[in-house]
Amino acid sequence: MTAPQPLSVLVATDFSEDAGHAVARAAMLAAGLPARLSLLHVVSAPMLGALRAMFGGSDRQDTEGRMIEETRQSLRSLATMLGNLDGEIACEVRVGKIVDEVLAAAAQHDLLVLGPRGSNPLRDLILGTTAERILAKSTRPILVARQPAREPYRQVAVAMDFSPDSVAALRAAARLAPGAELAAVHAFDLPFEGKLLAAGIRDDEIQHYRAQARLDAMRGIERAAVEAGLDPMRISRVVQQGHAGRTVLEQAEHLGADLIVLGKHGESGLEEMMLGSVTRHVLSDARCDVLVARREQ
C-alpha cells in the first residue's frame, strides 16, 4: 500500500493564548502524522496605516520594517520552542487584511489550524469571530483549537447527515486522529410528527416510524463508513431524535469527546457570507476542538 502524502498544516497565530493552543495542537498533529508544519502571522494593514499616520518619511519605513522583522523573529522563536519535528518549520509574515491573507495562505495547504477568537474582542462581537469569518469563506478544512493540547485525540464525535460532506468528515477524523475512538452522531426528525399526533395517528404507529428512521440512520452510517474507506466496525453509532446541533454537543459531552468533526456544506454566495446554523451552534458552544472538513473538489 502506498504511504499517504505528508499533510501540509498551516497554523495562524497572533501570539495570543488562544492562538497558543492552536500552535501546540498543530505541532502535536505534525509530530504524530506524516505532516509538514508552517506558522503564519498577519500584520494588520489598518495597524500599519495607524503607524503611517504617526510617523513620517524614513522614520515610518524604519518603524514598519522593524515591526515586521520583529514579528518574523517571534515566529522563528516560536518554531524553535516547538522542539524536534521532522522537517523544518516554515515561518511566514504577511501584511494585509487578516481574514484575506489567512485565506490566501491556507489555499496552499491541506489544513488550517487556528484559535476560536482573534485579538480584538469587540470586532469579534460585532462581526463574528475571526475563525467564523475565515470558515465562512474557506475552501480548506479548518481545525479550531479550543483546548490546550495535552495528548493526541482519543475520542472523536463525527456529525453525520449522510451527505458527501459528512463522508469527508469521517475520512478527515480518521486521518487526523488515527488512534482515537470514532463515534458517528446523527440527529433525526420525524416529519410532521406533530400533525400526525393531532390527526389521531396511534402512538404505536409513530413509534414504528421512529424505529424505522433510527434503523435507516444506522444503515446510513455503515454505508458512509464504507464510502470513506473505513471499517464500519471501528465506528460506534449514536442516533437520536432531536435538533442536530444540540444533539451533537450533548453526545460529544456524554462521550467525553476531545474533537468534534463536521462537514461544511454548500458553495453558494449565502454560504460565503455566513455559516450554517448547526456549524455555528457547535462552534459557539463546543467545549472541545472542532474540525470543519471539506470534501475534495
Overall morphology: elongated
Query: Termini, distance in Å?
Result: 24 Å
Q: Would you tell me the structural class of the helices and strands?
A: alpha/beta
Major sheet strand order: 3-2-1-4-5-10-9-6-7-8
Under CATH, the homologous superfamily of the largest domain reads HUPs
Helix count equals 12
What is the third-level CATH name, the topology of the largest domain?
A: Rossmann fold
Percent range for β-strand residues: 15-25%
Q: How many domains?
A: 2
Q: What is the CATH first-level class name of the largest domain? A: Alpha Beta
User: Which CATH architecture of the largest domain is right?
Assistant: 3-Layer(aba) Sandwich
Organism: Quisquiliibacterium transsilvanicum
Family: Belongs to the universal stress protein A family.
InterPro entries: Rossmann-like_a/b/a_fold, Universal_stress_UspA, UspA
Pfam families: Usp (PF00582)
Top keywords for this entry?
297 residues; alpha/beta; Rossmann fold; ten-stranded mixed beta sheet; 12 helices; 10 strands; 49% helix; Nucleotide-binding universal stress UspA family protein; UspA; Universal_stress_UspA; Rossmann-like_a/b/a_fold
